[in-house]
Known about the structure:
This protein is of the alpha+beta class. The chain has helices at residues 16-24, 26-29, 118-139, 153-162; strands at 6-12, 34-36, 44-49, 53-63, 67-77, 90-98, 101-109.
Amino acid sequence: MTTPDFTTTLLVDQTPTEAFNAINNVRGWWSEEIDGGTCKLNDEFNYHFEDIHSCKMKLIEVIPDKKVVWFVMDNYFKFTKDKSEWIGTKISFEISVKDKKTQISFTHHGLVPEYECYEICRGAWSNYIHDSLGSLISTGKGQPNSTGKPGTADEEQLQSDKN
């Protein structure tokens, strides 16, 4: 059965432990503007990118080397009519071994095509998962947003659209 939730899969040569540790290093692949804990069950963290996007996440499931799930407690988008898209959705990283590689299945449960942010968010998540998280796992260096500096083409486009 297919789901309209956004899902993408990444295969890497590193171990499930290395993938799990990289996923939890949210500052290393998503944004340097993360405040709060990102590793343990019930940790909460805030993500912020300029005045364009901010959200508050809570880790609701953490199974070492297998799974991490975030719950979106709060969210704000400057570029949508409904400023609260994402609130109440879940973001999961499921780690498994497939053909001697580590597979990370990323799903943003509740991020559906009906959302105004869907295309921008789909593009941004694809970049963060495949390029930044993939690079962090395989080379030890991701491509997160720097403080005050966009890290993806989608966010750079949003920045130029607002000017």
